[in-house]
Structures are given as structure tokens and as C-alpha cells.
């Protein structure tokens, strides 16, 4: 099962069903957990550079896919970075690709990208597991969910001063630029159609994996009742919220990120032309080549990761003011009962970063975060709740789980 591990996992099409513990499978023991995130992103958020932060988070996933020539690596987009699972035989080329991405982030975006590789075996020896579920959002497009606490522990080991040196890649550079072909940033921010965009971080306080998943499932069921609809109806991505203007605001950032093999000026000119043609097709709803505006917009809605899970449930929802009040009551009640920790942040817009691999076969994915820092802003409340009852020893050592 090691070869083609992710694609061999039974697929599920409904997010609420994916969090069921029976849908999770253990990652190969000799694989690596790749953690890449932006350090000290406070300044970038304060300066309003949310799109740049998201762009580098998406670049991490794009760089790994292009460096290995494979999309069979489970990943979760976290807003200011990403977590991935990788066969250790690809360590060398992936490290090189991410080091080049780190240099790009520093030189062109003034962002400090941390890169780390944590062996799956290491977190298992500390009592956690690395379990993977597969959510197929459309044929050929799958998103991963991580459970078992292993990826969460890997992130803690990378950020712990006593253990970071074992895993974090030292500061060095390589010549050249990363291959980020497919990374795109052209759509306008997604304005709420109901009133508020809500960014949620929710984590079960339970130590046992099955119990964690049961609490997460309970929260999702209660959430569906509060919003009065299925989760996909609360997505910020809809035909009404998708807007394409010319020239796109993110075009310069896309040109800087994807200029490998070309100068910035030449790449920017190319993108101006490409985006103009796309704008014309959108404006008149006319197909050009493999680009069919109405079909593509519907595929964007389907292929968006507004709900994700990596031991922490991360959601970006479009809600009414009344629904937000109900969600807050639900969160407070389950937190008071000792079931969950949470962070919540409200804003008016969501942001979308795109990976477009093959338009003809509809192979593309779209990463969603909230504006004004989104998940980063929600994490402030979340971290306070977690730190109030988790000791440093517990976080570093991990907690045993039942297999």
C-alpha cells in the first residue's frame, strides 16, 4: 500500500463522513511529515498582506507536487503554510524545492518560511499516530485529512526550542527558482453573501483518537443544525461570490512566484495577456480552448477546501449574523463541557489561492482562508484555550492513543 498510498485509501465524498475514525488509515512508518509555515507572520498580517501569506502557503504544496511529479502526497493547507506526508525517498528533491521556495518567500515577499521534516516513526515512538483519510471533492481531485495526533505533535516538535534543531532545515540557499507552475492568484476576494465570513478552529480535548473523532462528529452535526443546511451550502465559494476583474490584484504576486525560467517583466506581461483573455471569456461567458467559464466556476465551488482537518478542524463559512450567534453559543457550550477548544474570527471576505494542474481534465484545487488574517486571527483565541489546560510536558511528549 506504500506505492500510491493516498490514492489507494478508500475515498469518501462527504466531509462530515470523512471524520469518522473508520475512514482513517496509518501512514507508512518510513514516510516523513513535512511542516512548512511562515514564522512571525504578525507583521505581514498587520500590513494587510494576507494574500501574500496565502500565496506562500499554496506555493509549498505546488513546489512539492512539481518537484516529485506526483500529486499522491496527502496535504492540508493551513493559511500561512501547509503540512504534507512524503515518501522519504523524495526527501532530497523536495528539500531543494522548498529551500528555493523559502528564498523566494524571503527575497520577493519578505516572509520567513520555516521548513522541517519529521519522520513518522518519531511521532509514533512518542505515542501519537499519523492517520490519513481521503476526501474526494470531485473525480481526480482529493484532499487529505490527518488524525491520530501525529501531525499536530510534529508541528509542536518543530516549534519547540529543545527539539527544533533535529527537524528544521538550516538556513542555506540554492541557485535558481522553484517550479511553481500552476499556482494562481487571480480571483477577487469572496464577499459574504449572507452577512459574515466565519473562520473556525476546533479541536477535541480528548486524548483517545476514537473519542476525538466522535466529539468532532458531534460538533459537525450540531453545527449543521445551527446553520440549517448542509456544510457545502455554507461555503464562501458560490456563483454569486466569484468575481473576476482585470487586471487581477494578485497578478504581480503570481508573476513573482511563477517566473522560473523568465524575467519578472516578461512573466508579468504574459499574465496580463492570459488574464485579459480569461476576463473576456468570463465577461461574455464564452468558451475558449479548454476554458469554459460556467463549468470552471462550478468546478471551483466543488474543488474548494473551505473545510479541512489536521487534528484540528478548520472551516471558513458564509453565515448570517444569527447563525454566527448560534455557532458561538455551540462553541461556548462544548468548551464549557470540556469537549473542545476553539478559536473564531469574523470578517467580511474570504481569500482564494488556486492550484491549476490540467484544465482539460478538470484537475485543480482552491485553498480558502478568511481575510484579515483568517485562520491566523482565529488561532489567537484557540491557542489561549489550549495553553490553559495543556502542560508543556504533555505537548512535547504526546499522548498515547488506542489503535
Describe this structure in words.
The protein has 403 residues and is an alpha+beta fold. The chain is 39% helix and 24% strand. It has helices spanning 5-8, 15-18, 42-46, 50-68, 91-109, 120-125, 150-159, 209-227, 251-257, 264-284, 293-302, 321-336, 375-387, 392-397, and strands spanning 11-12, 25-26, 31-39, 75-77, 81-87, 112-119, 131-138, 141-147, 183-184, 190-191, 196-204, 307-309, 313-319, 340-347, 349-358, 363-370. The model is unreliable at 396-403 (pLDDT under 50).
Keywords:
403 residues, alpha+beta, 4-stranded mixed sheet, 16 strands, 39% helix, globular, disordered C terminus
Map the helices and strands.
Blueprint: H1 5-8, E1 11-12, H2 15-18, E2 25-26, E3 31-39, H3 42-46, H4 50-68, E4 75-77, E5 81-87, H5 91-109, E6 112-119, H6 120-125, E7 131-138, E8 141-147, H7 150-159, E9 183-184, E10 190-191, E11 196-204, H8 209-227, H9 251-257, H10 264-284, H11 293-302, E12 307-309, E13 313-319, H12 321-336, E14 340-347, E15 349-358, E16 363-370, H13 375-387, H14 392-397
Parallel strand pairs: 1-7
Antiparallel strand pairs: 2-7, 3-5, 3-6, 4-5, 7-8, 9-15, 10-15, 11-13, 11-14, 12-13, 15-16
Amino acid at each position: 500500500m506504500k506505492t500510491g498510498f493516498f490514492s489507494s485509501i478508500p475515498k469518501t465524498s462527504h466531509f462530515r463522513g470523512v471524520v469518522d475514525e473508520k475512514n482513517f488509515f496509518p501512514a507508512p512508518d518510513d514516510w516523513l511529515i513535512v511542516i512548512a509555515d511562515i514564522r512571525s507572520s504578525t507583521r505581514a498580517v498587520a500590513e494587510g498582506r494576507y494574500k501574500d501569506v496565502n500565496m506562500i502557503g499554496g506555493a509549498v504544496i505546488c513546489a512539492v507536487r512539481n518537484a516529485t511529479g506526483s500529486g499522491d502526497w496527502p496535504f492540508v493547507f493551513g493559511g500561512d503554510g501547509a503540512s504534507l506526508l512524503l515518501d522519504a525517498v523524495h526527501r532530497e528533491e523536495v528539500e531543494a524545492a522548498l529551500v528555493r521556495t523559502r528564498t523566494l518567500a524571503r527575497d520577493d515577499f519578505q516572509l520567513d518560511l520555516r521548513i522541517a521534516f519529521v519522520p513518522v516513526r518519531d511521532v509514533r515512538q512518542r505515542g501519537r499516530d499519523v492517520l490519513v483519510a481521503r476526501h474526494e471533492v470531485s473525480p481526480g481531485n482529493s484532499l487529505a485529512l490527518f488524525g491520530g495526533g501525529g501531525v499536530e505533535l510534529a508541528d509542536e516538535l518543530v516549534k519547540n526550542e529543545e527539539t527544533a534543531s533535529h527537524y528544521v532545515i538550516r538556513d542555506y540557499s540554492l541557485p535558481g527558482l522553484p517550479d511553481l507552475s500552476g499556482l494562481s492568484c487571480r480571483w477577487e476576494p469572496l464577499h459574504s453573501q449572507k452577512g459574515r465570513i466565519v473562520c473556525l478552529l476546533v479541536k477535541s480535548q480528548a486524548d483517545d483518537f476514537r473519542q476525538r473523532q466522535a466529539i468532532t462528529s458531534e460538533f459537525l452535526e450540531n453545527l449543521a443544525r445551527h446553520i440549517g443546511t448542509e456544510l457545502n451550502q455554507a461555503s464562501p465559494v458560490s456563483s454569486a461570490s466569484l468575481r473576476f476583474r482585470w487586471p487581477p490584484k494578485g497578478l504581480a504576486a503570481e508573476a513573482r512566484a511563477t517566473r522560473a525560467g523568465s524575467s519578472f517583466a516578461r512573466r508579468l506581461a504574459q499574465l496580463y495577456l492570459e488574464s485579459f483573455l480569461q476576463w473576456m471569456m468570463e465577461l461574455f461567458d464564452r468558451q475558449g480552448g479548454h476554458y469554459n467559464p460556467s463549468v470552471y466556476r462550478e468546478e471551483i465551488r466543488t474543488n474548494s477546501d473551505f473545510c479541512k482537518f489536521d487534528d484540528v478542524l478548520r472551516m471558513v463559512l458564509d453565515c448570517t449574523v444569527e447563525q454566527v450567534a448560534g455557532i458561538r453559543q455551540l462553541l461556548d457550550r462544548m468548551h464549557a463541557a470540556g469537549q473542545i477548544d476553539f478559536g473564531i474570527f469574523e470578517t467580511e471576505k474570504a481569500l482564494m489561492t488556486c492550484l491549476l494542474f490540467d484544465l482539460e481534465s478538470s484537475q485543480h484545487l482552491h485553498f480558502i482562508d478568511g481575510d484579515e488574517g483568517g485562520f491566523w486571527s482565529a488561532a489567537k483565541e484557540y491557542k489561549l484555550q489550549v495553553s490553559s489546560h495543556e502542560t508543556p510536558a504533555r505537548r512535547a511528549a504526546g499522548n498515547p492513543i488506542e489503535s
